[in-house]
C-alpha cells in the first residue's frame, strides 16, 4: 500500500526548543491532514491543508503545504511538555487515508 | 458524551479464537473506518463503510469481516486469531468519505 514518508522518526527536545516534522509524498496530493496521538491515546485531528503553499497557524503550531503539494511540515515553536506525543500526517487518495509513519516527540522539562 | 466509542477497550485471547470488536458513533456521520496500529505505531486503514456500504477494503485477510448494521455502528469480527493480529484497532468516523476523521479510543488486542 501507499506509504507516506515522515521524518524524523523520533525527536527529543528540551522544553522551550522548537520542533519540526516533515512529510513527503512521491505523488501530488489533493490535501493533507495532521493528527496528534498522545501516549496511550487515539489520533486527534489537528488541521487540513488543501491549497498549494498554504500556511495555517494554531497558536504555537504552524502547518505548511508545499508549493508542489508533495510535502508538508508541522512546526512547533517553544515546545511544552503538553506537546508530547506522536504527530502523523495523512494523505487522502480516493477517500483512503494513508498515514505517515509518525514522529514521536518527547519534551524534557 | 463520547463521540466515537469502542468495546471492549482491552481484549486478551488465545490463538485460534474468534472475537468481535464493536464501534458506535453519535456524530451523525455517514462514513466509518477500521484502522490497525501495530507495535511500531503504523496506522493502516483496513475497511471503510459509507451509508452501510463497504467502500474500502484494503488487503486484509479474509479472517477479518466488518459489518455495519446501520450508519452509526461498524463492527469487526476476527476469525481464527493469530499472533500477528495483536495490535490496537481504532474505529473512526467522518461526515463523508475523505473528510476529517474522529477516532475512537481504540481496542488493545493481545493474542497469546
Write the layout of secondary structure elements.
The complex is a heterodimer of chains A (109) and B (112).
Chain A: E1 5-7, E2 10-14, E3 19-24, E4 32-37, E5 43-49, E6 55-58, E7 61-65, E8 71-76, E9 85-93, E10 96-99, E11 103-108
Parallel strand pairs in A: 2-11
Antiparallel strand pairs in A: 1-3, 3-8, 4-5, 4-9, 6-7, 7-8, 9-10, 9-11
Chain B: E1 4-7, E2 10-13, E3 19-25, E4 31-37, E5 43-50, E6 53-57, E7 64-70, E8 73-78, E9 87-94, E10 102-103, E11 107-111
Parallel strand pairs in B: 2-11
Antiparallel strand pairs in B: 1-3, 3-8, 4-5, 4-9, 5-6, 7-8, 9-10, 9-11
Describe what is shown at a glance.
With 109 residues, chain A is an all-beta fold. Chain A contains no helices and 11 strands.
Features:
heterodimer; A: 109 residues; mainly beta; five-stranded antiparallel beta sheet; 11 strands; globular; B: 112 residues; seven-stranded mixed beta sheet; four-stranded antiparallel beta sheet
Description:
The complex is a heterodimer of chains A (109) and B (112). Chain A is mainly beta. Chain A has strands at 5-7, 10-14, 19-24, 32-37, 43-49, 55-58, 61-65, 71-76, 85-93, 96-99, 103-108. In chain A, a hairpin with a 2-residue loop joins β6 and β7. The model of chain A has no long low-confidence stretch (mean pLDDT 93). Chain B is built from no helices and eleven strands. In chain B, a hairpin with a 7-residue loop joins β9 (87-94) and β10 (102-103). Chain A binds chain B through residues 1, 33, 37, 41-45, 48, 86, 88, 92, 95-99, 101-102, 104, and chain B through 33, 40-45, 48, 55-56, 58-59, 90, 92, 97-98, 100-106.
**Spans of at least 5 consecutive residues with low confidence of chain B:** none
- Overall form of chain B: globular
Largest sheet of chain B: 7 strands, mixed
Cα end-to-end separation of chain A: 39 Å
Could you name the ranges of chain A where pLDDT drops below 50 across 5 or more consecutive residues? none
- Mean pLDDT of chain A comes to 93
Largest interface: A-B, 20 and 23 residues
Rg from alpha-carbon coordinates of chain A: 13 Å
Classify the helix fraction of chain A into a percent range.
Answer: under 10%
E-strand count of chain A = 11
Biggest pleated sheet of chain A? 6 strands, mixed
Task: Indicate the structural class of chain A.
Answer: mainly beta
Estimated share of beta-strand residues of chain A: over 45%
Structural class of chain B: mainly beta
Strand fraction of chain B: over 45%
What is the helix content of chain B?
Answer: under 10%
Can you count the helices of chain A? 0
Amino acid at each position: 500500500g501507499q506509504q507516506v514518508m515522515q521524518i524524523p522518526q523520533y525527536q527529543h527536545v528540551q522544553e522551550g526548543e522548537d520542533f519540526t516534522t516533515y512529510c513527503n509524498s512521491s505523488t501530488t496530493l489533493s490535501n493533507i491532514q495532521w493528527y496528534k496521538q498522545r501516549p496511550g491515546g487515539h489520533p486527534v485531528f489537528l488541521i487540513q491543508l488543501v491549497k498549494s503553499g498554504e500556511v495555517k497557524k494554531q497558536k504555537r503550531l504552524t502547518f505548511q503545504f508545499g508549493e508542489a503539494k508533495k510535502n508538508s511540515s508541522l512546526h512547533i515553536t517553544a515546545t511544552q511538555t503538553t506537546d508530547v506525543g506522536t504527530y502523523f500526517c495523512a494523505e487522502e487518495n480516493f477517500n483512503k487515508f494513508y498515514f505517515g509513519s509518525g514522529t514521536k516527540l518527547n519534551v524534557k522539562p | 458524551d463520547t463521540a466515537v466509542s469502542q468495546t471492549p477497550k482491552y481484549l486478551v485471547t488465545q490463538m485460534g479464537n474468534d472475537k468481535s470488536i464493536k464501534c458506535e458513533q453519535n456524530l451523525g456521520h455517514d462514513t466509518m473506518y477500521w484502522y490497525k496500529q501495530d507495535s511500531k505505531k503504523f496506522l493502516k486503514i483496513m475497511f471503510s463503510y459509507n451509508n452501510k456500504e463497504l467502500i474500502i477494503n484494503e488487503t486484509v485477510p479474509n479472517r477479518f469481516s466488518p459489518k455495519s448494521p446501520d450508519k452509526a455502528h461498524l463492527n469487526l469480527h476476527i476469525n481464527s486469531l493469530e499472533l500477528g493480529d495483536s495490535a490496537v484497532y481504532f474505529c473512526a468516523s467522518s461526515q463523508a468519505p475523505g473528510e476529517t476523521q474522529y477516532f475512537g479510543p481504540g481496542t488493545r488486542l493481545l493474542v497469546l
